Amino acid sequence: MYKRLILLVTGFITIFSSNAQKQQVNDSINVNKLEEVIISGTKTIRNLSSLPLPAQIISQTEIENSNSTRLTEILNEQLGLITVPDFGGGEGIQLQGLDSQYTLILIDGLPIIGRSAGTLDINRFTSGNIKQIEIVKGASSSLYGSEAIGGVINIITKEPSEGLNADLNYLISSNNTNDGNLSFNYKKNKAGFSLYANSYNSDGYDLNDSDEFNTVDPFKNYTINTKALFDLSDKISLSTSGRLFNQKQDYVASSELSGESTIDEWNISLKADHIANKKWENSIELYKTNYYTEEYLNTANGSSYSNSFYDHKLIHSEIKSIYKPKDNQTYVFGLGYNNETLERTYFTTKPEFKSPYAYIQYDFNPKENLNIIVGGRYDNHNKYKSQFSPKSAVRYELNDKISIKTSLGYGYKAPDFRQLYFNFTNATVGYTVLGYNAVSEVLPQLISEGQIANIIVPLSEFNDKLKAETSTSLNLGSDITFSPEVSSKINLFYNNVINLIDTRVVANKTNGQNVFSYYNINEVITYGIELNSTYKPNNNFKISTGYQLLFAYDKEGLRSFENGEVYARETPTSPAFQLQKSDYFGLYNRSRHMAFLKVNFNNLESKLNANIRLTYRSKYGLYDSNNNSYLDSYDEFVSGYLITDLAVNKKINEYSKISIGINNLFDFKDIENITNISGRIYYSRINFYL
User: Fold this and answer.
1) What does pTM read for this prediction?
2) Are 124 and 47 in contact (CB under 8 A)?
């Protein structure tokens, strides 16, 4: 397979390079070279190249050329990011080795909710109306508060453009998957409006023919986005936006139990911007969102077996001011308030989180080649200890080709509703899971009912509040421009997460099962290096490569191996032997090596784009197969794999474009361990423009 791949890539490069050479080199390198701007890193408009933080932008062009339909597909091709399926069938994003629950997901700078099992499923988001995706790596709680331990991913959607524009496109692919998009926008003078609608459905897929169940059951969903802009004057503008998402999916639990799961999500925002003068800018934003899910199961005779729901609401408001006393100084001030509620099955109460906050940031250029950013945010929460989150970053240009940058930040993640208020008993097995705050209420009740045989953790240990998980994040990197055609980025990263929230047994039940709850105990570190290089000899041809080396450990595990406290067996019946520190692989579901290669070709004369994209992930462990509580060299691992995607896009005329492609060209599948890779996918798309 790899020989075929090498030949394919070589031929691809040779053909397209020869075609590109027919174009004049001089008309490409510096022509139409636009500076990418980013908002998420500082909450101000900054040139990406000048930002002292590790960040990247995924452009609209890159998204469209890849023919991606969902956010999952786009992010999974980026260095240092990997999509990870959870037990509920959703997919979260792992960033720099940190769990998906530690990455904050935004749409147009506003937070997305709906982490029913700790993971925010990014399959919910279509790619059809994305203008760009901004990724900021490293703790970012100094601006964004909770959940931004690993970083921030901000999805910027398209805004109304001048005139009347419309776009209709339809994609059909394997597994009877259909993706239809309609966009319409109109802008004239001081007002603009846009409408975007997406319909997405699939028959799902089945990786294992030996049983009667699908790996992914059939589903259908739709998304509607609207935006409206109004310039009341030269200094005052209003904008409003709304998003609606609905999904229905078959839900088959066993041969005797089947039903349906439903997701209803909506959000609406209103924003006013005011430019007081050249030095002062102000904005106020109001935002409300609701994420609702419901699942039911019926028996074979149609009677109800179970019904559960999840109803999560967030009201967010923020006032932001930007003050520029001098050209080389910028202050950002912010005051905000979050009100969050959750009703769901298996909760002891309807909890409410109230969190006012304030932040400040100072962006300073004492010299033309030196940029310094310092800032911090204070969050006052009604259910856990208040947090102060500082951050600093520095960028220094050694010369016109080399710059170095470093950032140090503090991040935190508040205990979620599930970790505080959960009250769930598995009806089949008989174990119980209680949120930290629910223990004091529910456990005495279980004792009075005669369900508890032994108390492991005294109730007095639950008198204090569950602490927020906190992190310290350090990034040190360099941007190097070897020539107008070749550039590289290097980033060393280190993340230290403390007060990690985990589960433990707090009591034994009379049925032989346990009662579990949450507590602060673990400390986790991730560190490594990221390398990116780009070769662009002209506007027609571009090669991008990237590599990440990652180490991710539980500090308690490291100490146990160092102290010689961990043992293993070659077979279940063989003698146990002591493991060394070098035998400790680290955290589950982390690959030591990740890499990508992207080759992109544009023929301007024939209006043709073709690209090939390769992503590699090395081996990783999912389970402790030898039962010593750690992932070591003697456990079973998921083998490394390579995914190859091809896409060809041809613009027929001013009003239409066709696209074809193959994802997972060599049909990689791992039936036992990887549920979110379905095998080879063929697709075709047609676009119509007005």
Assistant:
1) 0.91
2) no
